[in-house]
Amino acid sequence: MAVVFKKTEALTDTVMHYCPGCGHGIVHRLVAEVIEEMGLQEKTVGVAPVGCAVFAYRYFNVDIQEAAHGRAPAVATGAKRVLGPDSLVFTYQGDGDLASIGTAEIVQAAHRGEKISVIFINNAIYGMTGGQMAPTTLLGQKTTTSPYGRDKELCGSPIRMSELLATIEGSAYIERTAVNSTANIIKTKKAIQKAFGAQVNRKGFSLVEVLSTCPTNWGKSPVESMDWLEEAMLPYYPLGVYKEV
Amino acid sequence: MAKNLMKGCEAIAEAAIQAGCRYFFGYPITPQNDIPEYMSARMPKIGGCFLQAESEVAAINMVYGAAGAGARVMTSSSSPGISLKMEGISYIAGAELPCVIVNMMRGGPGLGSIQASQGDYFQTTKGGGHGDYHMIAYAPASVQEAIDLMQTAFDVADKYRTPVMVLADGIIGQMMEPVEIKENTGNAPKKDWATTGWKKGERARAVVNSLYIEVEDLEEMTERLQARYRQIEKDETLVECYNTDGAEFILCAYGTVARICKTAIAQLQKQGVKAGLVRPITVWPFPAKAVHDAMCAPGVKMALCVEISAGQMIEDVRLAVNGEREIAFLGHAGSRVPTAEEIAEKVLAMRGA
Ligand code: SF4
Q1: Residue A14 belongs to a domain
Q2: Is the domain of B67 the same as that of B118?
Q3: Which residue among A63, A142, B49, B72 is least enclosed by CB atoms within 10 Å?
């Protein structure tokens, strides 16, 4: 029988723990497909975060290191400096990890022009710990630690990491994408290809920010979540390429 | 090789290079800046990598990443910076990664002083980071010993897949002494657990990780660590017994203070008092048996522990003798170093009392 579809080799057969309707599974698939299609599986070292993707080391079928919360870019730096320019080193981080506790590490990795690629999942909330406010949580958005909605006076406005990182000289490729539609999923895959390409071609630091869903902590169905991403997140977090050298 | 006059920090850095260390990640802090400065000049010349990290937190995590990729790697800092590294050290212990960390202790708590101190004994030997782990810690008393222990540190780290600390103080770091550095790169084992890019069929997929979400799995990991620690206690404990045979008075001290104790012992000798010294070279594992045997020998009348701290190692000394002998203490919290005269006077006063 002819094979019409095959799961990528760069994912293990382990059943993922992500909730129904969660964007993580989609992005894992895209990252793994790009690794395989670029023929880089044997040269890849991943770095998993703390957060919902903490078990990413079980899913990506490559050598991988699990980092402390927010420290993935530093761990990736250490690995990349040892493995050299022929390797592909990527981190996979959520918004609590990258945009809160790990801001020093992500900004400084970009500042050094560290030749690593970062897959940044922005779902506007802390998933693993049960729905607390993230730096990316929208104004007025209710979470378990902003029960009356995020208040600008109390905790400022949501942070736009792609825009921030694009101002840094060492950044070679920065794009924000989303997984709310087939078209955007295809664009996300292309963005990952470009980010990995920037690393392989030794251009500098690369990052793809993926706007993603967290139905569980948003208190929405998977379909409602896709709608909320489009209606609430897209206006505040415009998609597009923020840096390309 | 002829002996060269070298400053402690630079000698330690060169000893690391001669031990095959090619990766250094660090952040400036007094009094150890000569180590990163030396590394920044040497590493590019020998195909290695020196990187000044944005913080001690980042530096230790770069060490994690490099160690996870199979390299001989180190970082250095001083007390407040070591506090920042403690999170990473716990992860390194949990992920079973080998690396070397140098701590040139300065006075604390807080910003404290930039002078020498031994106030980080608790932090070094009793955890520092979270969880059930230990870190081998060598406490050199001279620049030559610091060099030799640096080289041992890399071998032992690789052998047991564990973080190893070289616990020195600002005096060792700044002192110049004639030293010899031997090349010693022969003992790095093959690291088939390292994340170097996975070719199927050659080995299992490498996962560097300290997360064991199931209770049973975590227990298996911690039991593995504990078994390793028992082995380390058995095989890697180092101690010097100086002048202890027939001594009526036993001193216990480590690092620079132990050296000062030797001067005090010579002064006491002239006054007809026979004193000896038991000097832990590894502060973890603590040489409990040697300390006990020296202090509880039949002819010994009194024992004194000397530290540049408010009294930290003395707790391990007291545990070692387990009530068989009373242990007196001489020390200063902060950075004031006890003098030989002060130690000799204390001994004479105790004797007269
Ligand atoms: S909590 Fe949210 S982000 Fe985490 S797996 Fe579930 S849906 Fe995904």
Answers
A1: no
A2: yes
A3: A142
Region class of B276: left (phi > 0), else alpha (psi between -120 and 50), else beta: beta
Enter the pTM of the model: 0.97
Taking residue B189's Cβ as centre, other Cβ atoms within 10 Å add up to 10
Domain count, chain A: 1
Give the pLDDT confidence score for residue B186 in this predicted structure.
67
Question: Which of chain B's residues have a Cβ under 8 Å away from the Cβ of A67?
Answer: 61, 64-65, 91
Query: 10 Å Cβ neighbour count for B352?
Result: 6
The CATH number of residue B250's host domain is: 3.40.50.920
Asked whether residue B246 falls in the same domain as residue B262, the answer is yes
Q: How far is the CA of B296 from the centre of ligand 1 (A)?
A: 61
Tell me the pLDDT of chain B averaged across its residues: 96
Tokens of B115: 């002078």
Residue among B58, B73, B211 minimizing CB distance to A54: B211
Give the model confidence (pLDDT) of B308-319 as tens digits: 999 999 999 999
**pLDDT the model gives residue B353:** 64
- List the domain range (segments joined by +) for residue B245: 239-352
The atom of ligand 1 lying closest to the CA of A21 is 7
The amino acid at residue B155 is D
Query: In terms of domains, do B231 and B243 share one?
Result: no
What is the identity of the amino acid at B321?
Answer: V
In a domain, A203, yes or no: yes
Token readout for B297 is 């020998």
Burial grade of A100 (CB within 10 A; 0-12, 13-18, 19 or more): middle
Cα three-residue angle A156-A157-A160, rounded to 5 degrees: 130
Domain count, chain B: 2
For the segment B10-68, what is each residue's pLDDT rounded down to a tens digit?
A: 999 999 999 999 999 999 999 999 999 999 999 999 999 999 999 999 999 999 999 99
Task: Assess if residue A8 is contained within a domain.
Answer: no
